Amino acid sequence: MHTAQCAIQMNSVLPSAHANLPATLRRLAEIGYDGVEFAMRFGGFFGRTAMEMRRLLNDTGLRCTGATFDGMNLEGDALKIAADDFAVLGGKYLIQANLAVASDQIHNSEAWRRTAEAFTVRAERLQAYGLQAGLHNHTEEWVLTTSGECGWEIIFANTPASFVQELDTCHCMEGGGDPVKMLRAFPGRSQIVHLKEYPRGTDDPSARDDPAGIVRKLCAFGAGRVPWSDVLAACRGVGGTEWYAMEFWMGSAPLDGQDLENAGLMLSFARRIFQCQAAAIA
Question: Which pTM does this prediction carry?
Answer without folding.
Answer: 0.91
